[in-house]
Specification:
The complex is a heterodimer of chains A (about 325) and B (about 260).
Chain A: E1 5-9, E2 11-12, E3 15-16, H1 18-34, E4 38-44, H2 51-56, E5 61-66, H3 75-89, E6 93-97, H4 100-112, E7 117-121, E8 123-127, E9 130-137, E10 142-147, E11 154-158, E12 175-178, E13 191-197, E14 210-214, H5 224-234, E15 237-240, H6 242-246, E16 267-271, H7 277-283, E17 288-293, H8 300-303, E18 306-309, H9 312-328
Parallel strand pairs in A: 1-4, 1-6, 4-5, 5-12, 6-11, 7-11, 14-15, 14-16, 16-17, 17-18
Antiparallel strand pairs in A: 2-3, 8-9, 9-10
Helix pairs in contact in A: 3-4, 5-9
Chain B: E1 2-7, E2 9-11, E3 32-34, H1 36-52, E4 55-61, H2 66-76, E5 80-84, H3 94-106, E6 112-116, H4 127-135, E7 139-149, E8 152-159, E9 162-169, E10 172-176, H5 188-194, E11 199-202, E12 219-224, E13 233-234, H6 239-253
Parallel strand pairs in B: 1-4, 1-6, 4-5, 5-11, 6-10, 7-10
Antiparallel strand pairs in B: 2-3, 7-8, 8-9
Helix pairs in contact in B: 2-5, 3-4
Classes of the chains: A alpha/beta (about 325), B alpha/beta (about 260).
Chain lengths: ~325, ~260
């Protein structure tokens, strides 16, 4: 019989990602009701040092696969490892982060295991033993409650910033299960030729707690500098509306909206963004929304918690200075 | 080069979503379009065909209305299409749709499979990857640049904080992300030609599938709409004064900075 809640642990530059702790927190929430064990799957190279923190944050067990072949994520190697482990141990639930890696891995593994996958979940409930996930559809213009009644394991990807990581408990330790790595070169079809990282110290858009975003009102690419200055003071990511991306002022990877990224930060500061249905779809689940726009009738004010009707080129620099002063005195 | 493109029809991006009296998503009066990410896939297929020669086949599964989207893809320049429409498809999930598509592809010869990386309606981003898994194809996901040569695909894909360049042997699945290209509009000539292009229509029976085989693994139990937000606060005063007050509110009231 299927048993155990599994979470797939992601790490970057020798550190467990915050999202992984969020997944552990989601896993514990299910385990509290079902009495099952929570296991973390830790794949990579030179990563055994990360086991401790997984235990502190709620893993009862860590399946550790530490191998040169897993140094970089590839669909084939990671997919084979995860699906074979799951076939052998029959977990009841597998949770992954809704990240580039998590999405890529989850869909293929779900198919390998002939099971369902609930993508992009933003909530879960356990009613009468049935696990129900909440997920946005139409980029957040509506929500669906989804179940996986028969197939096992139940697989889901969970969006960042949804679950709050638990408090780490000193002295809490996970049992370590070392997983044998039987991967052949012939199992691998993806050859990673190059990895180009943007030299930004700002957080990734989908994981950021604060986002400073610009739209048509930015008037040109050079003006994004004033948003970057505010973002750097707040430790925020920079985003953009489709209008700004389509005008060629900023790369599409910064686009927030129905044909861009869906974000849910604690604070979203929209500068010179009118608030099209498409844009609102991507950001309206932000906890607090600030709008700075010189058009008092702009749609964005309908969803904003705080609005300033004014010229962003006058407002934003003062805001940056004020926030800098305030944060310096804390 | 034989290229197959997976096409999904979706609601227009500006569509306002509401629920009908049965609590289902209201489809009345909604404009239907090609999923914008699939348009990038179609455009890329056409460009590869223009460079290397070959044939572009559109594959779409859904209600009879998908014919409009299929026709538009043919008008853009695709050569032919396969449409699977069947009442028994209502309520299918990604698992079932992927099975149907792989049955269609199993009867076709192709070197490259292209698709949008996700659809803007359900956003679940798994059908294409499931198809690749069933057919045993490698894939590169969320691609913004693609080069095809001598039996391999070299694709640049988005990862968090940067890009990765990955090479896979053909046949392979590539899923398209915004930035890959600028999709063309159908020309009048394209629309005229599209009328003569073959569209093969198939039912589940004809594919050798029955409802039991595509029984959904996941089920939606209910839908709901976001709760409207209470009206926000417009901060009065000149730019400097308002900015100072905003800073104070973010700190003391919302406690977000």
């Amino acid at each position: 019989m299927a048993k155990g809640i599994w979470i797939f642990a992601e790490h970057r530059e020798g550190k467990i990602k915050k999202l992984t702790y969020e997944l552990l927190s989601a896993g514990r929430k299910i385990a509290e009701k079902t009495g099952e064990e929570v296991s973390a799957l830790l794949f990579g190279k030179g990563i055994s040092g990360l086991v401790d923190s997984l235990g502190k944050y709620g893993a009862d067990k860590v399946y550790l696969a530490d191998n040169e072949k897993l140094a970089k994520y590839t669909t084939d190697f990671y997919g084979k490892m995860l699906s074979e482990l799951a076939k052998k141990n029959q977990p009841s639930v597998i949770l992954l982060g809704c990240t580039v890696l998590g999405r890529d891995l989850a869909a293929r593994v779900a198919q390998k295991l002939n099971t369902g996958l609930i993508s992009d979940s933003i909530g879960l409930e356990l009613n009468n033993g049935q696990l129900t996930f909440v997920r946005p559809i139409y980029a957040g213009k509506a929500f669906a409650k989804v179940v996986c009644p028969e197939a096992r394991p139940i697989m889901a990807t969970i969006r960042p910033n949804v679950f709050v990581p638990g408090q780490p408990q000193a002295g809490r330790r996970a049992e370590v299960v070392t997983v044998p790595v039987n991967l052949e070169k012939s199992d691998l079809r993806q050859i990673i030729k190059d990895v180009i990282m943007r030299s930004s110290t700002r957080p990734e858009l989908t994981e950021a707690k604060i986002i400073v975003s610009g739209g048509r009102g930015m008037k040109g690419p050079e003006n994004f500098k004033i948003l970057e200055e505010l973002a750097d003071v707040l430790g925020a990511a920079v985003g953009a509306s489709r209008a700004a991306v389509d005008s060629g002022w900023i790369d599409h990877s910064f686009q927030v909206g129905q044909t861009g990224k869906t974000v849910a930060p604690t604070l979203y500061i929209a500068c010179g963004i009118s608030g099209s249905t498409m844009h609102l779809a991507g950001m309206s689940s932000s906890k607090y929304i600030v709008a700075i726009n010189n058009d008092p009738d702009a749609n964005i004010f309908k969803v904003a918690d705080y609005g300033i009707v004014g010229d962003l080129f006058e407002v934003v620099p003062v805001l940056t200075e004020e926030c800098k002063k305030l944060l310096a005195t804390q | 080069m034989k290229i197959a493109v997976l096409l999904k029809q979706t609601f227009d991006t500006e569509a306002i979503i509401s629920l009908d009296s049965n609590g289902q998503i209201n489809r009345q009066g909604i404009n239907l379009i090609i999923n914008p990410y699939d348009e990038f896939a179609i455009e890329e297929a056409l460009r590869i065909k223009e460079k290397h020669g070959g044939e572009v086949t559109i594959i779409s599964v859904g209600p009879p209305e998908i014919q409009d989207a299929v026709f538009q893809a043919l008008a853009m320049g695709a050569d032919k299409a396969v449409m699977v429409t069947d009442d028994a498809l209502a309520g299918t999930d990604e698992y079932g749709i992927a099975l149907v598509i792989s049955k269609v592809l199993g009867n076709q010869e192709f070197d490259l499979l292209l698709s949008g990386w996700r659809a803007i309606d359900d956003g679940s981003a798994q059908v294409a990857l499931r198809v690749a898994e069933i057919l045993g194809l490698p894939h590169v996901n969320v691609v913004t640049r693609l080069e095809i040569e001598e039996g391999k695909a070299t694709a640049t894909r988005e990862i968090e904080g940067g890009y990765e360049v990955i090479e896979v042997p053909l046949p392979a699945l590539i899923t398209a992300q915004k930035g890959l290209n600028e999709p063309r509009y159908p020309t009048m000539k394209g629309i005229m030609q599209a009328r003569k292009k073959p569209i093969k229509k198939l039912s589940l029976d004809e594919l050798g599938l029955d409802t039991a085989k595509i029984h959904p693994k996941v089920k939606t139990t209910s839908y709901f709409l976001p709760t409207p937000k209470p009206e926000g606060k417009i901060i009065p005063g000149g730019p400097a004064e308002a900015a100072r007050e905003l800073c104070r509110l973010m700190r003391e009231e919302a406690k977000v900075i």
